[in-house]
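Hi F.,

I've been meaning to write this up properly since the lab meeting, where we talked about keeping a consistent format for the predictions we share between groups. The idea is simple: the sequence comes first, exactly as it goes in, then the C-alpha cells exactly as they come out, then a line or two of notes. No screenshots and no reformatting. I'm using this chain as the first example so we have something concrete to point to.
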Amino acid sequence: MNHEPPVARIDYGLKAIIPAFFQNLRDDMERIRAAMAARAPSEAGRVAHGLKGACLGFGFAHAAELARRLETAIAGSHVLTAPPGNGRAENGGGAALSSDAPWQIALRDLAHHVDTVRVEYVDTGQF
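Output, unedited:
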C-alpha cells in the first residue's frame, strides 16, 4: 500500500498565497460542518460548490474532485431532525444520526487530503 502523500503541482506565482488558501479551505470545511449541524444543507452545498471551484482555480484537481464528491453527498443527504425531548437525531425509521453519513465521510476525505497534500511549485508560465 502506498503511503506517500498526494502531490499537487502548483505554479510558483501562487506560492505566497497558498497558506491562506489552505486556511480558507479549512474554514469552509468547518462552515459545512456547522451548516449541516444546523440542518441547512443548501448552505453547506453552496459552500462545498465554492470550495470545489476554488480548488480548481488554484490547480488542486484532486481536492476539487473530493469537493465535488462532498457537494454530491450533501445534495443527496436527508437532514435528520431531533424529536422534541430526547435530543437524539433520528430519521423516519428511527435510526440515530451517525458520524458515517456520506457527506461526513466525503468531508473527512477532503480534510485528510488538505492536511496531507504536498505542494510542489513549478513554472507553468501562467503567473
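Notes:
The first helix runs from residue 18 to 37.
The chain has a mean pLDDT of 86.

If this format works for you, I'll send the rest the same way.

G.
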